Amino acid sequence: MRLTRPPGAPGEPAGSPARPPGPPGRPSGTTLRRALGALIAAALLLTGCASPPSFGRDPRTLVIGAEGEIPVLDPQRLSGTVGLRVVDALYDPLIREDLSTTTDRAPALRPALATSWEVSPDALTYALTLRENVTFTDGTPFDAAAVKLNFDRITDEKSPVHDATAAGNMKFLTRWIERVEIRGPHTVDLRLTTPYAGLPRVLTDRRMSLISPTVLREHDPDDVGLHPVGTGPYRQHDADHGKRVELRRNTAYWGGVPKTESIIVESVSDPTTLAIAAQTGEVDAVLSAGAQQVRQLAGQGTMTVQYPEPANQYFLRLNTRTAPTDNALVRRALNHAVDREALATLTGDQIVPSYGPLPLGNEAYRQSAAEDPRYAHDPALARRLIARSGVPTPVRLRLLAPDSGPGFSQATEIMSLIQQDLKAVGVRLEVQYMEFASLVAEEGAGYKDGVHGSFNGWTTGADAADFLERMFSGALHPPNGVNRGWYRNPAVDTLLDRARAEPGEAARTDLYREAADTIATDAPWVFLYQDRLPRLLSRKVEGVVAAPSVYIDYTTIRRR
Fold it and tell me: 267 near 435, Cβ under 8 Å?
């Protein structure tokens, strides 16, 4: 089943070399940003012009507008779609999803740096056959030793390349890996501590992209992302860190020579500025467009709208170890207080209400959960639950929220509606807004006492059933994971353990669904919505299939 579509849905670090000039006829990143600022007023006067100016654009270069700051490109340290999308052009994981077809479920898996994988009968060993004749873009050979060194970085504290920060970020995967064994130049075994039937899909996570061994050996852990070298379809040619990355195609790419010679990813975090840039032809693609941008540009004749509809979740993650959100009755009351249909109306039906932890497109999603929502909008019930909780009213909460960023172009409006809904049931919500990257950094170590949670979302890896484990496992509290609200339920952890080891797909799915039901009852999040995450693509752009993913195929995208 697909999400219902609305009718007619339309600076360089010290010691770094100086940045070389861009391609001929192409403005620099600074010039582009200045031009975009000046264009806002001009575009308001020139709306309706049939042929927006091209500003001497190089036709060989495709420009992608990023909705937030571009982080340091160390995949194993990253969290956030903006950075992971750039990583996807520079690096490869062992396994990828098939992005060549549309589907209403998780995309099929296909070989990447691993050409095949076999699991032992006890599901404790995965034998991976690696692709031969592949090199990293610095010329370093890709082989079994390169794979082992990457895993050593995040699993072996005695390794000379060990990185504690990356190791903490990757615990969702590595906590199950006992060791990596080289069985031949292009064969490795992943030996597990416990059976893990869903491991191949987890290996598609772009955080598990493979980094050049030369970079790992020659640079300190904090500097690895400043020298991003993978085996991917592109290599970094130039970077104005945080603001702009220029990529040049890898003509020796094992997956075929990419169709586009040069790609620029430009950070334009203001939604209006980004829309103007798209309207005037300065930006060719916006890969997570907001509802306002879609409404503004869909009928202008310059951009098309594509709805990939990947599995994702947007939520208020709650701090379950500070009062009053340590009280499950209060958390359930918050869920009943929020009018999700009003949020959908606000966004022009770009979102679909969510009433539990599993999104549409997840392997274990069950449609009945959407047809019979557990947390229907019921202010009277919310007030009764608060009364039963014994928490004095008015309840006072403090939440963090982004003021913009990928998927958050209407964050302030959404939070305003939520504030009104909560006020109606006796909850006073104080919202502290911050830039998205700052929010991720602030909550990364887990919520502090006195912070009751944050408005956030998760758009990568949400199609795997063990998305539940990554988000809610009691063993994945920071710094060993992203369960930043400190939720823990031993019964849920037991169900996740059983599901992970269950070889039968139907039985495994039932266990994950049982875990999801228990999590929904505990309400560690206020479950809000699933975003359709539309893309805006210039009518001159082709080669992008509406596969259910936040990623695109960099080998096929091109600008005519």
Answer: no
Q: Alpha helix locations (H) across 14-128? A: 29-46, 81-90
What 3-state class would DSSP assign to 152? helix
Show the tokens assigned to 443.
């909550």
Q: Nearest 5°: phi and psi at 398?
A: -125, 120
Kindly report the backbone phi and psi dihedral angles of residue 395, in degrees, each rounded to the nearest multiple of 5, phi listed first.
-75, 135
pLDDT one-digit tens code per residue, 422-449: 999 999 999 999 988 889 889 999 999 9
Residue that wins the pLDDT comparison between 2 and 209: 209
181 pairs with which residues across the strands? 189
- CA dist., res. 359 & res. 554, Å (int): 26
- Could you give the CA distance from residue 201 to residue 478 in angstroms, rounded to a whole number? 23
Cα–Cα distance, 272 to 44 (Å, whole number): 11
* Alpha-carbon 443 to chain mean position: 16
Q: Enter the tokens of residue 286.
A: 């916006």
CA atoms within 13 A on the CB side of 474: 14
C-alpha 254/C-alpha 92 separation (Å) is 11
Q: What order of strands is seen across the sheet that includes strand 114-119?
A: 114-119, 125-130, 187-192, 177-184
Q: State the alpha helices, DSSP H only, in 219-375.
A: 271-279, 291-297, 328-337, 340-346, 368-371
**78/441 Cα distance (integer angstroms):** 11
Of the two residues 135 and 277, the one the predictor is more confident about is 135
- List the 61-66 sheet strands across, edge first: 234-240, 244-249, 262-267, 61-66, 285-286, 535-538, 303-306
**Alpha carbons 265 and 62: distance in angstroms, whole number:** 9
- Cα(242)–Cα(33) distance, integer angstroms: 13
User: What does the pLDDT look like over 141-179, one tens digit per residue?
Assistant: 999 999 999 999 999 999 999 999 999 999 999 999 999
Alpha-carbon gap, residue 513 to 104, rounded angstroms:
19
168/305 Cα distance (integer angstroms): 37
Residue 10 above 70 pLDDT? no
pLDDT band at 549 (very low <50, low <70, confident <90, very high): very high
Residue recorded with tokens 């982004």? 402
Residue with tokens 């007619």: 8
Paired residues of 119 in beta bridges: 126
Asked if 459 and 408 touch (Cβ cutoff 8 Å), the reply is: no
Q: What is the pLDDT of residue 461?
A: 85
The confidence score (pLDDT) of residue 57 equals: 59
